[in-house]
Amino acid sequence: MRQWTRPYVVRFWLAALLLPCSVYAEPSLNGFWTGTMTRDGATQEISLRVSGNTDGYKANFDWPDSGYFHEDAISMKVGDRSVLVSLPMPRGALKLAGTWQGDTVSGGLLEIGNVAGAWKTIHTDGSFRLSRASAPTPPYRVEEVSFNDGTVTLAGSLLIPRGAGRHPAMTFLHGGGDETRGDGMFIGDTLARRGIVVLIYDKRGNGKSTGNWRQGGFEELADDGAAGLRVLLARPDVDTKRTGFVCYSQGCWIAPLAISRGAPAQFLVSISGPTVTVEDEGFAQYGNRMREAGMPNSELAKALPLLKLDNSVSKGQASWRDLQAQIAKDKDAPWYKAINWSPEDMNDPERRFYGKILTYDPRAYIESLKIPSLWFFGTADITIPARASWERLRGMSVSPKPRIVIMENADHAMTVREGGKLPALAHGFPGMMADWIFTGRGRPLAEKRPAEGE
Q: For residue range 334-344, what is the model confidence (pLDDT) as tens digits?
C-alpha cells in the first residue's frame, strides 16, 4: 500500500486551511428564502424556512395572502439542482417546481385540486422566485407554556406583544382533526401584531400535548379551552375584561359549550362556525359533494337512509351487519360514488368520537351567551352549511345580539378564488377581527348582509 510521507501531509493540511470553506462544504438550502408567486396577473408574497441536508429537507412557509404563517409544507424534494416544494391549500396543494442556483430558487407553479371527489391537476401556469434573506423578527415575543386540564397536560405558545400595560387576549380553539398550535398561528400572528396576547396550543394527543381527543367528546375539548383561558387571566399583562375565545370551524361548536361550563370569556369570535347540529352539518357536506358531481339536490334524499344508518352504528343504535346489508343494496346506485363515502371500521376511534357528538346541538349554548360575539361566514363555504348556519343564528334569542359578517365568495378558510388567480383572503379579513376586539365589542354594529341572490 502506498504510504503518505510527512511532507505531503503538511502541504495537504496547509492547502485545506488556506482554501475557502465553500470548496469543501456541501451546498445547502438551509435558511430563510423569500420572494413572490405570480399567476393570472396577480402577485403574492411567499417565504420558506428550510432545514435539512441532501439526505432530506423539510420546509415551513408563510403565505400571508392565503392565510398561512409558519405552516409546515407537505414535502420538499431536492435533486441535483431541482427543488420541489408542496404546500397545502384548502382542498388541494400548490407545488413550487424550480431550479436552485446560488442564492435564488425560481420556477413554475403546479396546482392540484379536488374536483368532484377526485384529485386532479387544475393549473399549470404561474411562476415563483425566491431569494435567500435574513428571517424577519416579529414585533412580539413567543413564550412556551404548558397547563393542565385534569390529568391532561396541554402544551402551547404565548404570543406577547411588546410594550407595557394590559393587553386584550384570546385563546384559539381548533377545528376538527389532529390540530396543533400551528393551525392557529396565522390568526395568532395577525392579532399579536395588533397588540393582542394570544394563546395557541396543541390539541390533546397532538404535538407536545398528552391525552387523546378521540377518547373524549366536546366536553373535554371545551374544558381544555377553558383551562387555556385561565392561563391568560392569570397574567399581569392581560386585560381580564377584554379576554375571550377565537374559534374556527368545529371549535365554534365547542366555544359556546365551554362558556356554558364556566369558561370566563368576555367575547367570542367565530370563523366558519356551524350553528346547526353535528349530524345536519355532515349531511350538508355530502349534499355539496353530490352537487359537485353534477347530481341534483333531490338525490341526497336517496343517500340519507344509508348515512343515517351509519350514524346510528356510531351511536350504538344499529349493528355493523345492518350497515353492511344496506351498503350491498346501495353500492351500485349513481349517488353512491358521488358522496365519496366509505364507512370507518367498527372499532375506529374516530367513529367512537363522532358517536358521542352526533346529537350535539349548539343552539341552547349559543342562546345562553351573555357576551358580545362576532361571526364570520363565507358564501362559498362547502364544508359547513353556511347559509343555514347564519340564518339559524339570526333566529336565535341572544343578547347582546351577535354581529354577523358574511364574506361574499369566501370559502371555509375565508379565501376567495377569482378566475385562475391564487386564493386570497376575503377583503378585510382578519384585520376587522382585531378592530372589533379593540373597539367594536358590544356596540350595535350593523350586520353585513349577502349580496342579492346569495
A: 999 999 899 99
Evaluate the omega torsion of the peptide bond into residue 168 and state whether it is cis, within 30 degrees of 0: no
Q: Are residues 307 and 423 in the same domain?
A: no
Burial of 397 (0-12, 13-18, 19+ CB in 10 A): exposed
Instruction: Give the span between the Cα atoms of 418 and 416, in whole angstroms.
Output: 7
Left if phi > 0, otherwise alpha if psi is -120 to 50, otherwise beta: which for 281? alpha
C-alpha distances out from residue 181 to 251, 295, 308, 371, Å? 13, 38, 34, 26
Which amino acid belongs to residue 326? Q
How is residue 48 written as a grid cell?
Answer: 420558506
Residue 156 CB contacts under 8 Å (≥ 6 apart), including other chains: 144, 145, 146, 147, 181, 199, 200, 201, 202, 228
Instruction: For residue 410, give the nearest of 377, 443, 384 by alpha carbon.
Output: 377
CA distances from 108 to 72, 84, 171 (A): 20, 10, 38
Residue 17 lies in a domain: no
pLDDT band at 18 (very low <50, low <70, confident <90, very high): very low
Residues 84 and 160 occupy one common structural domain: no
Is residue 146 located within the same domain as residue 186?
A: yes
Q: Among all chains, which residue has been given the C-alpha cell 385534569?
A: 150
CB 48 within 8 A of CB 406: no
Given 78, 101, 133, the domain boundary residue is 133
Domain co-membership, 99 together with 168: no
Residue finishing a domain among 133, 153, 186: 133
Determine the structural domain holding residue 214 and report its residue range. 140-276+361-440
From the number of C-beta atoms within 10 Å of its C-beta (0-12, 13-18, 19+), residue 295 rates as buried
Chain segment 82-93, per-residue pLDDT in tens? 999 999 987 789
Summary mean pLDDT of the chain: 90
Are 170 and 184 part of one and the same domain?
yes
Tell me if the bond preceding 430 is cis, omega within 30° of 0. yes
Cβ(357)–Cβ(218) below 8 Å: yes
